[in-house]
Amino acid sequence: MVTFALSLFDTIGLNQDDKGENALVVTPSEHMMVPSYPGLPYEGATITFDRDTALSREDMNFISWEHPMIQGGIDLVMSEGVGTCAVSLLKNKALPVGTILLELVYVVDAQAPKKSGISRFLPPTPIRMMMDGRGNDLSAQVEFEGFNRQLSPVNRHLASKLVTSVQADVHRLIEAGNGAVEEKLTVVREEAHKAMYASLNGELERLQASRRLTQIFVMKRLMPLNLKSLS
């Protein structure tokens, strides 16, 4: 989460000032790719990735996958088409020279009007895939933080050459990823469906209970009148 967020802020062009004690001050810069950043005030914000720190400091924003600065940043990058592809070198003696690993990040989003409220149950949700040269998904075995620490950046010229040389493999692995992600997509959908059903069913039960109470109240009001009319 931390590495992803900091990389996202770098891509957008936000200033980041480490204040220690799990605190980071994020402010807009003159070199941002957009005039304003979602969820970030003009004067900036103090953020933390530690929940306990956020609970002890009212002036801090706790950054999670659901925070507007993350969700808005993902939407921004996806819509602008910037920063959606990166090339790095992986130095790992356990892997043969020339090994290709393709990391894919899909974003599950509900295509519905905001007033529908579906985003409460299915906010933009990233799904990470790590494809090896054979089309196997290694994301469960290769976690993001540990993998990212082993990567070394390459210059634009070398990156272009590398991409050209493995272009056919990349397209093949993207197709494999598109097929493999369906299972994870189904899980996300089912979880959202369960959450929506539980919420709406609870609301329905509340309304039904409220209706019964109203009916009981009306019956109590009418009972004396009915008894009087029978006497």
UniProtKB/TrEMBL annotation:
Source organism superkingdom: Bacteria
Any Pfam family: RapA_C
InterPro entries named in the record: RapA_C
RNA polymerase recycling bacterial C-terminal domain sequence ranges: 2-209
Single annotated GO MF: hydrolase activity, acting on acid anhydrides
Name this protein carries in UniProt: RNA polymerase associated protein RapA
Protein source organism: Vibrio maritimus
